[in-house]
Amino acid sequence: MDHYVDSFLNYLSVEKGLSQNTLSAYSHDLKRFLAFLEKRNIGIIDRVDRNEITLFMEALRNNALSFRSITRTLSTIRTFFKFLSMEAIVHHDPFAHIISPKKEFHLPKVLSISEVTSLLNLPKGETHKGIRDDTMIELLYATGLRVSELISLSMASIQFEAGYLITCGKGDKERIVPISEQAIAKIKNYLQTSRPLLLKGKRCDTLFVSQQGKGMSRQCFWKQLQAYGQLAGISQKITPHTLRHSFATHLLAGGADLRSVQMMLGHSDISTTQIYTHLERDHLKQTHRKAHPRG
């Protein structure tokens, strides 16, 4: 059945234009499903029925997967069978009358404005590495980029005179995001003082580079950010996505409209952006309870 998976992934890449990260996630989910079918001695895809899907759902729960992983895996398999039906490879839908688990609603964790200020103002040293880290954190909060987008920025991504950057997000969709004056100033300083020393004569088109003269990895930046968060006295564990959530929440709290925030974050569906309005309402409730004499 591997050739069906290959055809499906090729369809998603060519016809749907999905990113490599998304394709990898789909591939991982499908491998898990095929391994389950192999244990059940099912070698013909058309033999998969509603009962097998139900048993697969139970197996996912028994493997202690997170709710998010289970719903994503089932969504992948459901889409896979839609493709197989479209190609006339299967003649029935095993997902018919199967209701996907209800999506859990979790508000993302964000930093307060004072916590972000502490993180940004934290002295990170005058070394070329410290200046680079400070610039990356400033830019991340200024733009709300995903960490994958941040580390993928090229030298040509930054439009200094116009005051914006160009990034390529999920599904290889290009978007324009404004940059603050503070972030622009730090990028210019990084380019003049630190980047040449990090490159050590090597050539690299990536904006932010490591001490090996190569593009930064997300794992490396993740660790640096967590360390700076602790030094800034922030109690919660912060990630690059925490700053992305904080960027969106603080914009909405400052009066930005939802559509503009959606465009800057690169969300294809505005319902994804609407979670930040729930977050802002939750923050207002907490503020009311703390400040009101009868809260």
Helix/strand layout:
Layout lengths: L1 H13 L5 H20 L10 H13 L4 H20 L26 H9 L6 H16 L3 H6 L5 E2 L4 E5 L5 E5 L2 H13 L1 H5 L18 H14 L8 H14 L4 H8 L4 H4 L1 H17 L4
Antiparallel strand pairs: 1-2, 2-3
What's the gyration radius in Å? 23 Å
Record the strand order, biggest sheet: 1-2-3
Structural class: mainly alpha
CATH class of the largest domain: Mainly Alpha
Largest sheet: 3 strands, antiparallel
* Uncertain regions spanning at least 5 consecutive residues: none
Q: Count every beta strand, where a strand is a DSSP E run of 2 or more residues.
A: 3
Mean pLDDT: 88
Question: Structurally, how many domains make up the residues?
Answer: 2
The share of residues in helices is 55-70%
Using the 3D structure, state the CATH architecture of the largest domain.
Orthogonal Bundle
- What's the CATH H-level superfamily name of the largest domain? Intergrase catalytic core
What gross morphology would you assign? elongated
Please report the distance between the alpha carbons of the first and last residues. 60 Å
Order of helices and strands: HHHHHHHEEEHHHHHHH
Percent of residues in β-strands? under 5%
Q: Any idea of the CATH topology of the largest domain? A: hpI Integrase, Chain A
